[in-house]
Amino acid sequence: MTSPQTGRLMLLDTASMYFRAYFGVPPISAPDGTPVNAVRGLMDFISRLVTQYEPSHLVCCWDNDWRPQWRVDLVPSYKGHRVVEEVATAPDVEVIEDDLQVQVPIILEVLDAFGIAVIGHDGYEADDVIGTLATDAGQPVDIVTGDRDLFQLVDDDADVRVLYIARGVGNHERITNQWVVDKYGIDARQYADFATLRGDASDGLPGVKGVGEKTAATLLQRFGDMAGIIAAVHDPASDLGPGPRSKIKAAADYLAVAPQVVAVARDLPLDRSDLLLPLAPRDPAKVHELAVRRGLESPAERLTAALTR
Predict the structure, then answer these.
(1) What is the CA radius of gyration of the chain?
(2) pTM of the full structure
(3) In terms of Cα–Cα distance, which of 196, 262, 204, 202 is closest to 230?
(4) What is the 8-class DSSP label of residue 60?
(5) What is the Cα–Cα distance from 149 to 218, expressed in whole angstroms?
(6) What is the C-alpha to C-alpha distance for residues 253 and 255, in angstroms, rounded to an integer?
(7) 123 contacts 138 by C-beta, under 8 angstroms
(8) Contact at 8 Å (CB) between 260 and 74?
(9) DSSP code at position 149
(10) Per 3-state DSSP, what percentage of the chain is helix, strand, and coil (rounded to 5)?
């Protein structure tokens, strides 16, 4: 447990946000012709969120490995449809627009110049960084993402919520445990098992054949968690119908490994010492130079104003 802190920690699922910016902001180029719509969009998203929620701490969580080999070893189809090229000694190459790929280094330059913390961990995804920083944070936490998988981190007792941006940063939803209950009929702590059972085509997770959201929710309502469901399957006296029992049995190999893939890590050895939101750009000269060179004057002014509010 970290020592108690004041304020609120905001954790950004950075790739989720810059993908959304790239596809949501009209194409625009820097003076040298480099596309910068994703950079501008991300900067404005951060400005908006910082202004609205006034976090004391802010982290751009990073995908050092968007498709970790240990997850692929467990479920070979994991994110397989998004692979352009498999690489033996480095992260696989992901399907990504060239006009977006060229902007990622610029995003890192901008974040560094402003002094906004960027944290990743080799062999893990941004989700795992978020899971670790949100766990035992010692302060309230807002997780900004368009990924439902992170609903598993919602914890009303610890004041951890998700700001869900699937419908846009300007139209996001605040996800609490009651929201998850109302939407899916389960508690947030059950969401990882729910997702495992239901599957997720966007992540290449097949789920249990014949088990959709309603059946998955019903099983978790009755038996609590995956261990309880598996125990019921193997207990002839349990109150589990033959249909669901046979479906769970048929998916035994998948269910033996998938929960480890779906569950985000919560115990990575991350440095939490410098997570404070800067109250001014760390390197104003660099911010100015980037703004002029990359055509980012307006979003740089807005982000500076948000930090110095």
Answers:
(1) 21
(2) 0.94
(3) 196
(4) E
(5) 19
(6) 6
(7) no
(8) yes
(9) G
(10) 50, 10, 40
Whether the Cβ atoms of residue 119 and residue 62 lie closer than 8 Å to each other: yes
Residue 308 corresponds to which tokens in the numbers above?
């110095």
C-alpha dihedral, 272 to 21 to 15 to 300, nearest 10°: -30
User: What's at 81, amino acid-wise?
Assistant: H
Question: In angstroms, rounded to a whole number, what is the distance separating the alpha carbons of residues 88 and 235?
Answer: 43
pLDDT in tens, the chain (309 residues): 334 457 999 999 999 999 999 999 999 999 999 999 999 999 999 999 999 999 999 999 999 999 999 999 999 999 988 776 676 777 877 768 899 999 999 999 999 999 999 999 999 999 999 999 999 999 999 999 999 999 999 999 999 999 999 999 999 999 999 999 999 999 999 999 999 999 999 899 999 999 999 999 999 999 999 999 999 999 999 999 999 999 999 999 999 999 999 999 999 999 999 999 999 999 999 999 999 999 999 999 999 999 998
Residue identified by tokens 């939803």 is 173
> Amino acid letter at 137?
A
Q: Containing H/E element for 178?
A: helix 177-184
Helices (H), 199-241: 213-223, 226-233
The terminus-to-terminus CA distance of the chain in angstroms comes to: 31
Contact 186, 194 (CB under 8 A): yes
Query: What single-letter amino acid sits at 52?
Result: Q
- Residue with tokens 């998850």, as numbered in its chain: 180
Any idea how long the chain is?
Answer: 309
